[in-house]
Q: What sequence folds into this?
């Protein structure tokens, strides 16, 4: 492929890195506007109750308070991200009739300073009629359980079923069948930047929202609909965002409250959450109860799988329906088998809503699937890597009802991780307290499913080139810390053959950048926006090529190349001119019309799930202290097929971050809750691993070329968040004989598991 | 984050001035060293004071000194990281060195002090258990007076001590270790690094020429309202050869002393098991050090 190795596949440090580490980068909370007011929320103190009365009179009397609003003051339009399925929209920005979790937003205030706003929010009195509350999917789906939403009998808001092949027949025919039950818990996204939003009122009843989000276009649409104003009256601008991991991909009540009160008061209104707000009330990863039944032949061929999942969604749908949908797809993405049945149910409980979180259902599904593969391997007497090789997907394989896999380096990943981890030798020498385990993954490179129902393409880019040899890229792609501001410029630089420093980037302003972009989630940005940019750049090149033909009087058989800031004749590189000169001549011929092109990408004819799939395998090595139950991950080895890595450093960064999250998910992070109340609301007691906890990590690339991806690339963001939990769990089993079927694997569970603690 | 409530901040340049200030404002004053406990608590509204008196500019208060006849003196503003790297601390007080190496984070250790750690009186305070095991005492000064309080009489409950608001910890005095002695501290928590201990056990042990215990102190952290001395276990060890069986029984005696609760960090049950495990490990290491064996 003709891509420039100085740019594609290079390790280019983040172009925004210096500003971030020196503190110059501006995040939403850094911004101030003249006359700006500060907002605060009044949240429910009960897990489940009918609101009888909200008394704001005391709050309104406090000096410095400029506005107090309750649900009754608002248009009361429900929202949710599944606009194609209106019935799934179950949330109001401010509660009206009922509250469903401790923290549910009831009222909002704004005042001249933060202290006054907090005081006023606390002065709001709510009269409740308390209702019985439920905290687990088992309770919620039991006969006679109290209902959270009248429209959802049995507290199930959505069911997804997949079914193909002769499941019963194949299970009956299988030599070896096993059924296991797994439970995984909720964890926090724990992004470094707590949510923050500022709404600035504009003339004509319009409003601009600066906000910490990963889906500005979706926020624009939902803010307009909940405010009941035209979409074009809302402008959403993304500032620097300190991480999202799925926790910032919906419109949120403070975004609504800021805009609503800004329009009422005519003054800018800012809301900034605290870490304890985030931990006590924030979105989180879905806890799941999983049943999985699999049948194998005696030589290890997986025949059929029956997979049943209950997602603990908390009080509202949030992104839960998508997670319910995807979980079923993650259950059959990695291995090839003939019969599959999936039943996923999204269940309401009186807890803060769970939502999208890095992996979007995959880490949970994979903990069950990969643990079960390891258990089956042991009983079948087959090495776990061999068992996977027998069943692994390959390029050209079909995921039934989903897609044909256009590139797959799974088998190669398995072979490579086996080699670098020293698997064969280490698994043979059994040392007590020391173990080696494996987990594998595959993930989508962006979603084709589009319940948001946009009228626009999934990704768009606008490129303008100038006679000084520079270019401008306007894109709605959303860098929330993962790096597309750099990677997308690499893609444009490589396609136009100019230096990356020549490109000015204007990103994510719904009023200025081309419509549309569905945001940063589903590991979609590099593939989808990269393709849109290439499309735009190709159009630009088509406008520039005639200049060379004209100036050099070229024969039509020639091809033109763009390299090193020059435009040249491929067969005779001496015949060339500088990129800027070429733009100059092209512009001359356009009578004042700028050289601008738009490019788009929407995955077409790619099934319902994703245009491309990443694959990989990870081995974790642990040491377990059998007296304290403490698990130390001493090493990790990862082989990863992300297609062509556009920026190697960025991919390694994703891996480091994923291992940190995986460690926390597997070993230490959990919400300690009592009657719907979260008790550990600071990082002192919410045990996120720290830098010092990071194990050494070995990384091997498995490069495939993804035909659907820009320069052969596919996702490298979320897939890596999947394998760590099952790999560590398997390693703990090898070290101790304790097989964890529930997360997290705390020292207490280990000690109980090995019979050292009652 | 709620904004910091308003207060007057004083940075006296002498001890006299500091003592005058705390005495004058005794109705609403807090002494501050590193501020790593105080500032977050004030932000959260848990600690309230109209006046904060920082000691960091008081000259001579950060000194750490050791003499064979007099033992260790840790000044009231000596930082945790300075204590951790002090050669005499490393040589003679390995339990304290270990606590100061492992607690908190680099940034906190570079700001926080041992005096602050003790005055803050968290049941999980990492320097408390080792210092209890060493039989340390505190020199408390106020305008016109000075008294020495044994550390074991200092704590009265979570966040509570016998110190008066106008008293300042001037120094921590730790006796010199006797011959044939060893000491150790171990802690466990859910996060392997950078964490508040869920359980900590420290001990200092002193043997005679026959290898019999002639002196021992064991202290338990995070398993009661204050750091605790495990006297029953100590009595059991006195005059005995500390073999494996005895250490196991001493560990069990420590468990009987512990008064752990279930909280967000660990269950009481787990804490009891950890007291047993850590006590055995700590005592075994003390024995090896006291016998001059190579203790890893
Ligand atoms: C992220 C983080 C991690 C932490 N991890 C740990 C840990 O692992 N283990 C642990 O034990 N602690 C930990 N701490 C708590 C804290 O850092 C320590 O207790 C530290 O030693 C406090 O010292 P300081 O000088 O900062 O105290 P300050 O905050 O200055 O003071 C603490 C208290 O002591 C009083 N005080 C301070 N100095 C004196 C004095 N000379 N005389 C009289 N009273 C005084 C103050 O009035 C205040 O009430 C952690 C804190 C943070 C923020």
A:
């Amino acid at each position: 492929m003709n891509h420039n190795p100085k740019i594609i596949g290079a390790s280019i440090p983040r172009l925004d890195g210096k500003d971030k580490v020196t503190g110059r980068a501006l995040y939403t909370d850094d911004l101030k506007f003249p006359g700006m007011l500060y907002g605060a929320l009044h949240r429910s103190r009960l897990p489940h109750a009918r609101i009888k009365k909200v008394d704001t009179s005391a709050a309104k009397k406090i000096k410095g308070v400029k506005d107090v609003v309750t649900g009754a003051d608002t248009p009361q339009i429900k929202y949710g991200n599944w606009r194609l399925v209106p019935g799934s929209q179950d949330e109001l920005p401010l509660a009206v009739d009922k509250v469903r979790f401790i923290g549910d937003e009831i009222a909002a205030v704004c005042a001249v300073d933060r202290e006054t706003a907090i005081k006023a929010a606390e002065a709001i009195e709510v009269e409740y009629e308390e209702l019985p509350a439920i905290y687990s999917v088992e309770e919620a789906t039991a006969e006679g359980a109290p209902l959270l939403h009248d429209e959802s009998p049995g507290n199930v808001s959505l069911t997804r079923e997949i079914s193909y092949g002769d499941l019963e027949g194949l299970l009956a025919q299988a030599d070896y069948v096993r059924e296991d039950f797994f439970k995984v818990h909720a964890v926090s996204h724990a992004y470094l930047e707590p949510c923050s939003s500022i709404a600035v009122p504009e003339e004509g009843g319009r409003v601009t929202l600066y906000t910490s989000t990963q889906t500005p276009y979706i926020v624009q649409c939902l803010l307009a609909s909940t405010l009941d104003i035209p979409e074009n009256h809302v402008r959403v601008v993304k500032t620097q965002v300190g991480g999202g991991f799925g926790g910032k991909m919906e419109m949120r009540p403070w975004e609504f409250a800021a805009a609503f009160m800004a329009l009422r008061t005519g003054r800018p209104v800012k809301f900034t959450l605290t870490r304890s707000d985030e931990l006590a009330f924030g979105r989180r990863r879905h806890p799941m109860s999983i049943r999985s039944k699999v049948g194998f032949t005696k030589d290890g061929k997986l025949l059929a799988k029956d997979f049943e999942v209950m997602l603990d969604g908390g009080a509202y749908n949030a992104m839960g329906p998508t997670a319910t949908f995807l979980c079923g797809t993650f259950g059959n993405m990695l291995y090839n088998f003939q019969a599959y049945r999936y039943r996923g149910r999204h269940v309401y409980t009186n807890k803060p809503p769970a939502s999208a979180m890095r992996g979007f259902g995959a880490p949970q599904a994979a903990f069950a699937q990969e643990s079960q593969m390891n258990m089956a391997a042991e009983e079948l007497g087959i090495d776990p890597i061999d068992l996977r090789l027998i069943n692994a997907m390959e390029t050209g394989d079909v995921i039934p009802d989903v897609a044909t896999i256009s590139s797959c380096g799974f088998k190669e990943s398995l072979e490579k991780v086996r080699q670098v981890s020293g698997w064969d030798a280490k698994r043979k020498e059994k040392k007590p307290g020391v173990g080696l385990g494996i987990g594998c993954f595959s993930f989508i490179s962006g979603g084709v499913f589009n319940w948001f129902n946009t009228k626009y393409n999934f990704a768009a880019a606008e490129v303008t080139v100038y006679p000084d040899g520079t270019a401008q890229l306007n894109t709605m792609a959303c860098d929330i810390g993962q790096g597309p501001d750099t990677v997308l410029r690499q893609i444009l630089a490589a396609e136009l053959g100019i230096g990356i420093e020549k490109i000015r980037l204007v990103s994510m302003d719904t009023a200025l950048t081309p419509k549309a972009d569905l945001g940063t989630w589903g590991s979609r940005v590099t593939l989808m926006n990269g393709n849109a940019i290439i499309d735009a750049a190709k159009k630009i090149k088509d406008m520039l090529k005639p200049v060379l033909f004209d100036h050099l009087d070229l024969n039509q058989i020639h091809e033109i190349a763009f390299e090193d800031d020059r435009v040249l004749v491929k067969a005779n590189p001496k015949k060339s001119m500088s990129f800027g000169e070429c733009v100059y001549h092209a512009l001359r011929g356009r009578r004042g019309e700028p050289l601008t092109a738009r490019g788009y990408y929407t995955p077409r004819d790619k099934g319902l799930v994703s245009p491309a799939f990443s694959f990989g395998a990870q081995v974790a090595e642990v040491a377990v202290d059998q007296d304290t139950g403490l698990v130390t991950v001493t090493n990790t080895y990862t082989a990863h097929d992300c297609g062509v890595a556009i920026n190697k450093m960025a991919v390694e960064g994703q891996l480091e971050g994923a291992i940190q999250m995986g460690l926390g998910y597997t070993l230490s992070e959990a919400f300690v809750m009592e009657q719907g109340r979260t008790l550990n609301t600071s990082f002192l007691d919410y045990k996120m691993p720290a830098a010092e906890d990071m194990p050494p990590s070995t990384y091997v690339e498995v490069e495939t070329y993804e035909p659907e991806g820009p320069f052969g690339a596919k996702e490298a963001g979320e897939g890596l968040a999947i394998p760590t939990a099952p790999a560590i769990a398997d390693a703990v089993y090898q070290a101790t004989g304790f097989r964890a079927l529930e997360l997290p694997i705390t020292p207490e569970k280990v000690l109980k598991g090995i019979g050292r603690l009652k | 984050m709620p904004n910091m409530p308003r207060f007057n901040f004083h940075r006296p340049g002498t001890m006299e001035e500091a003592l005058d200030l705390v005495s004058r404002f005794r109705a609403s004053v807090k002494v501050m060293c590193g501020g790593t406990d105080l500032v977050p608590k004030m932000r959260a509204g848990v600690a309230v004071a109209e006046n904060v008196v920082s000691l960091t500019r008081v000259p001579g208060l950060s000194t750490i000194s050791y003499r064979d006849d007099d033992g260790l003196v840790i000044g009231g503003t000596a930082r945790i990281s300075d204590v951790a790297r002090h050669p005499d601390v490393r040589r003679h007080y390995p339990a304290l060195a270990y606590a100061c190496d492992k607690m908190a984070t680099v940034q906190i250790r570079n700001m926080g002090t041992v005096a602050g750690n003790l005055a803050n009186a968290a049941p999980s305070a990492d320097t408390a258990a080792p210092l209890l095991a060493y039989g340390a005492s505190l020199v408390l000064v106020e305008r016109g007076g000075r008294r020495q309080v044994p550390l074991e009489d200092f704590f009265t409950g979570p966040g509570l001590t016998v110190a008066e608001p106008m008293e300042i910890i001037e120094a921590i005095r730790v006796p010199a270790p006797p011959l044939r002695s060893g000491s150790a501290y171990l802690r466990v928590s859910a996060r392997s690094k950078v964490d508040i201990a869920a359980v900590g056990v420290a001990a200092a042990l002193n043997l005679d020429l026959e290898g019999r215990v002639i002196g021992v102190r064991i202290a338990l952290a995070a398993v009661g309202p204050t750091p605790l001395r495990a006297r029953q276990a100590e009595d059991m060890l006195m005059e005995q050869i500390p073999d494996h069986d005895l250490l196991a029984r001493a560990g069990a005696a420590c468990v009987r002393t512990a008064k752990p609760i279930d909280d967000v960090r660990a269950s009481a049950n787990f804490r009891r098991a950890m007291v047993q495990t850590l006590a055995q490990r700590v005592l075994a290491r003390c024995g090896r050090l006291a016998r001059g064996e190579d203790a890893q």
User: Anything to note?
Assistant: The CA atoms of residues 15 and 58 of chain B lie 6 Å apart. Chain B has three domains: 8-54, 64-174, 181-290. The pocket of flavin-adenine dinucleotide is lined by residues B 30-38, 40, 55, 76, 80, 103-105, 108, 111-113, 115-117, 119-120, 125-126, 163, 168-169, 196 (CB under 6 Å). Chain B has a mean pLDDT of 95.
